[in-house]
């Protein structure tokens, strides 16, 4: 039902949209990183789409895949129009930064801080980009595929405890 | 001057001060003193204390505390009055008299004026 | 007999009084908190054991109830609160996360609260049923009565050490006098 | 009056550049200023605090009782749900989803099961009875969620009796759910393709009568506390939020409905058989703590209505999809036939094979829209599983809600945000 969002996207940003797909009823559009903020702003303000609620922002770590390692995922929804779309933005490993979307949806402030904490993707223009969950002394970004699951960095231990 | 009438009052005072004092002294001498630096640091929900507890705080706290004190003492005076209310409202000749009620009504009225003044000056609320 | 008889009887009497009036500091973090509510609630009422009165300041508590998962970030907090409690103090690990970290074996979950504080009674279960918690509490009360709590043992060792040093000091004095 | 020449007032290091007065040097502006100058004080409402539900650290800058700024820090209960689920098969993730929002665990189970079924594209093949059972247990779980939230918040505001009454009702539901699922709190009752076991016989009549008693307890609490002058003064227009603010900040569930937006996933994107159910969605207008309290109070009654309708419409049948690659075969088949044993072994050892692809599925959890974003790579373990936690976004605005409020307003705001550590910090 939100196929028309993808059509509008293709007609408005033919160069920015790399590909669109429809898997199990979820409309997905992969957008270039440079034009990502313009596409998101268009999706939010355009009378036709009006995606006023961003559900969640997260990242995927495609370690070992050729091409860009990270991929930002924006899950958007419109409460008035009752339709939604998923925007994915590939982010290269050597320069893991992207524009923040808190200017459009302030609700994604903490979600982006969590993506920074867990995946190490910097958000340009984020009001206060600090670690969301881990403590400052923690080194590394735990949800990356190359971070071992049980590698603890303990802050305090009783004497005699490893 | 029948000083004897006040003996129960002295007894209660001595008992209360004695009991409280005894307990505190016992705790001070018998209780184990095992102070470590960590234990003496102020409790801040488990985090390192921020700033010093000696910082200056707003005068409004003092204002609210004093006002509470005034009306608390007012209530404290009502207790002995309420206990003797039956005797106060009968004259020796057995005819009902409004003395008991009148005394407390006047007392409350005075403090009512104080309450009205404080209420209008908005000293009770916080902002 | 003399002093020892009275002190042991006195210590037992005090231990009996302490075990039935435990003031708990509920260090509640996770799902076990829901079961802690049920334990303190009307049906499984923990007040029957005298341990119902939660004190939210370590100064006034003598039983630290570690309820739920302890993460690495929470470690320093737990250790500081344990040290700010007055002796004698006891620690109960409520739930398998507090005992061994449960099925969270990862970078931010501490494998058990005893990595940071000495625990007296471990209550397994995820979350443990209120009956299990009451059983754990009874076990703790037996330990208190037998003076086997960690802080009680440490206190006795320190007393013994102090007495020994004192005895040593007396022996050396006459030699200096001659 | 000639202005006496006085030395410039030194600004204390570390204290923000606010008008600072050194005692004894009263400048002209101090005499006629309305209030006496005060200095902000930083207070640590740390992780181990009853109002902070045990795991939130908040550093508040306080001017007397008025809060100037609040910085909320999480992470004290981050249990790495997403990292753990990358190392567990789909069936093994159900116990982890129980412990996300551990106040309404079955809503999480159902939400996750729907997400995996959407990825497998078998949503239509789930037997009817299993879908009805899922609706019943998730609505009962939603009632326990609201009972705990309202009870705990009332206790934090001083109404301890409401806490005990609501806990009494919650105990009844715990025992009923325990009969079905085997556990009081961490049920892990739902499976991909259906539920583990059918309802015990006679359970429906027992729960029907139980619901009438729960409803009586809810009415009793409603009459006692909702109209109470003190309670309303503490709750009304504390942390009000407008429609636009609520949508922009990603609010969902009771919080968003209290701000005036009637968005309920069970109505907007009906899953299971919610479209056959007839229930209404309460909506507030000011978005403050009192509206959130009343929305949850009314929602409990709607959930009871839904459960009753499910009981009426439910018919006997099997409770899990009979597809060897997804559901475990019945035990006698496992021991007596080769196919059964192979199926059983394949599913247990390397999990349910979900075809590669990404799906986002959402359902109405206790606190709002609970979403699961699954990236499957064809193996039995998800490549990535992200959980959209509804109270994560409501708590984000707690700092804004209590700005310029009194310290005592922190308690209702945190109570009504229904901050659940497991779900918020995953």
In a nutshell, what does this entry contain?
Chain B has one domain (3-120): Methane Monooxygenase Hydroxylase, Chain G, domain 1 (Up-down Bundle). Helices cover 61% and strands 0% of the residues of chain B.
Descriptive overview:
- The complex is a heterotetramer of chains A (162), B (127), C (178) and D (426).
- The termini of chain A are far apart.
- Chain A is elongated.
- In chain A, the strands form two sheets. In chain A, strands 1-2-5-4-3 form a five-stranded mixed β-sheet. A two-stranded parallel sheet of chain A has the order 6-7.
- Chain A is of the alpha/beta class and 162 residues long.
- Chain A has three helices and seven strands.
- The mean pLDDT of chain A is 91.
- Chain B has helices spanning 7-30, 37-40, 60-83, 85-88, 99-120.
- The radius of gyration of chain B is 24 Å and the shape is flat.
- The mean pLDDT of chain B is 86.
- Chain C has one domain (3-146): Rossmann fold (3-Layer(aba) Sandwich).
- Helices cover 47% and strands 10% of the residues of chain C.
- In chain C, helix 1 (3-19) packs antiparallel against helix 5 and helix 2 packs across helix 5.
- Chain C starts with a helix and ends with a helix.
- With 426 residues, chain D is mostly helical.
- Helices cover 46% and strands 11% of the residues of chain D.
- Chain D has 18 helices and eight strands.
- Chain D has helices spanning 28-31, 81-85, 90-98, 105-120, 128-156, 160-181, 203-226, 229-235, 243-248, 254-258, 265-268, 289-313, 331-336, 338-350, 390-396, 398-401, 410-416, 421-425, and strands spanning 41-45, 57-63, 66-73, 190-191, 194-195, 357-364, 369-376, 382-388.
- In chain D, a hairpin with a 5-residue loop joins strand 7 and strand 8.
- In chain D, helix 5 (128-156) packs antiparallel against helix 6 (160-181) and helix 7 packs antiparallel against helix 12.
- Chain D is globular, with a radius of gyration of 26 Å.
- Chain D starts with 27 loop residues before the first helix and ends with a helix.
- The mean pLDDT of chain D is 89.
């Amino acid at each position: 039902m939100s196929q028309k969002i993808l059509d509008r996207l293709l007609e408005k940003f033919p160069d920015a949209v790399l590909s669109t797909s429809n898997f199990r009823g979820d409309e997905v559009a992969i957008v270039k990183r440079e034009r990502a903020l313009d596409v998101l702003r268009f999706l939010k303000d355009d009378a036709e789409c009006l995606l006023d609620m961003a559900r969640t922002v997260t990242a995927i770590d495609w370690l070992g895949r050729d091409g860009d390692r990270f991929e930002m995922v924006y899950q958007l929804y419109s409460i008035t129009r009752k339709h939604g779309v998923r925007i994915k933005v590939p982010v290269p490993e050597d320069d893991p930064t992207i524009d923040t979307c808190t200017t459009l949806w302030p609700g994604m402030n903490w979600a982006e801080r969590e993506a920074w904490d867990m995946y190490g993707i910097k958000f340009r223009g984020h009001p206060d980009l600090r670690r969301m969950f881990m403590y400052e002394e923690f080194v590394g970004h735990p949800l990356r595929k190359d971070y071992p699951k049980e590698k603890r960095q303990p802050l305090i231990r009783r004497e005699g405890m490893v | 001057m029948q000083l004897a009438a006040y003996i129960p009052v002295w007894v209660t005072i001595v008992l209360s001060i004695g009991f409280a004092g005894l307990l505190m002294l016992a705790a001070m001498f018998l209780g184990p003193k095992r102070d470590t630096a960590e234990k003496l640091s102020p409790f801040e929900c488990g985090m390192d204390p921020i700033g010093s507890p000696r910082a200056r705080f707003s005068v409004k706290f003092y204002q609210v505390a004093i006002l509470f004190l005034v009306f608390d003492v007012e209530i404290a005076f009502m207790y002995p009055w309420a206990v003797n209310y039956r005797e106060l409202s009968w004259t020796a000749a057995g005819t009902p008299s409004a003395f008991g009620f009148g005394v407390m009504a006047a007392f409350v009225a005075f403090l009512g004026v104080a309450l009205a003044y404080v209420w209008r000056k908005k000293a009770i609320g916080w902002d | 007999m003399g002093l020892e008889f009275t002190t042991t009887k006195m210590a037992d009497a005090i231990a009996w009084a302490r075990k039935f009036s435990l003031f708990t500091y509920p260090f509640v973090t996770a799902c076990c908190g829901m079961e802690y509510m049920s334990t303190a609630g009307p049906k499984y009422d923990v007040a029957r054991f005298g341990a119902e009165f939660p004190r939210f300041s370590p100064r006034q508590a003598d039983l630290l109830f570690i309820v739920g998962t302890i993460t690495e970030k929470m470690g320093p907090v737990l250790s500081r609160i344990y040290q700010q409690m007055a002796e004698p103090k006891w620690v109960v690990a409520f739930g398998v996360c507090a005992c061994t970290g449960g099925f969270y074996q990862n970078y931010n979950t501490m494998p058990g609260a005893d990595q940071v504080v000495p625990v007296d009674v471990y209550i397994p279960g995820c979350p443990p049923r209120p009956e299990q918690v009451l059983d754990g509490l009874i076990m703790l009360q037996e330990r208190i009565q037998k003076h086997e709590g960690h802080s009680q043992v440490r206190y006795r060792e320190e007393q013994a050490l102090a007495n020994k040093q004192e005895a040593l000091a007396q022996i050396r004095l006459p030699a200096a006098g001659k | 009056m000639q202005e006496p020449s006085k030395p410039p007032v030194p600004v204390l290091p570390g204290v923000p550049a606010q008008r600072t007065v050194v005692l004894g040097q009263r400048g002209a502006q101090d005499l006629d200023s309305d209030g006496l100058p005060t200095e902000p004080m930083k207070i640590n409402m740390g992780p181990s605090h009853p109002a902070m539900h045990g795991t939130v650290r908040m550093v508040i800058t306080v001017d007397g009782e008025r809060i100037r700024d609040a910085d909320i820090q999480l992470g004290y209960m981050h249990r790495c749900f997403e990292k753990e689920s990358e190392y567990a098969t789909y069936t093994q993730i159900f116990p982890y989803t129980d412990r996300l929002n551990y106040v309404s665990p079955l809503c999480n189970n159902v939400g996750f099961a729907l997400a995996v079924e959407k990825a497998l594209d078998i949503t239509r093949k789930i037997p009817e009875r299993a879908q009805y059972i899922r609706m019943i247990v998730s609505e009962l779980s939603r009632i326990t969620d609201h009972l705990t939230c309202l009870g705990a918040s009332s206790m934090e505001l001083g109404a301890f009796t409401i806490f005990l009454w609501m806990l009494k009702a919650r105990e009844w539901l715990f025992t009923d759910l325990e009969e079905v699922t085997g556990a009081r709190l961490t049920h892990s009752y739902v499976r991909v393709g259906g539920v583990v076991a059918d309802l015990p016989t006679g359970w429906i009549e027992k729960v029907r009568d139980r619901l009438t008693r729960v409803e009586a307890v809810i009415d009793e609490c409603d009459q006692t506390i909702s109209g109470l002058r003190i309670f309303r003064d503490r709750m009304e227009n504390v942390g009000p939020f407008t429609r636009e603010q609520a949508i922009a900040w990603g609010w969902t569930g009771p919080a968003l409905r209290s701000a005036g937006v009637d968005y309920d996933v069970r109505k907007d994107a009906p899953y299971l058989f919610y479209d056959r159910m007839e229930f209404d969605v309460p909506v507030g207008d000011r978005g403050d703590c009192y509206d959130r309290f009343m929305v949850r109070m009314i929602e409990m009654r709607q959930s009871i209505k839904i459960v009753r309708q499910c009981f009426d419409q439910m018919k006997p049948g099997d409770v899990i999809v009979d597809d060897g690659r997804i559901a475990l075969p019945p035990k006698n088949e496992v021991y007596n036939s080769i196919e059964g044993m192979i199926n059983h072994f394949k599913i247990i050892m390397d999990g349910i094979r979900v075809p590669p692809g990404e799906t986002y599925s959402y359902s109405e959890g206790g606190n709002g829209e609970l979403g699961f974003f699954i990236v499957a790579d064809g193996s039995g373990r998800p490549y990535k599983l992200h959980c959209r936690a509804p109270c994560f976004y409501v708590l984000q605005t707690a700092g804004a809600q209590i700005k310029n409020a009194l310290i005592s307003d922190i308690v209702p705001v945190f109570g009504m945000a229904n901050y659940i550590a497991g779900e918020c910090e995953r």
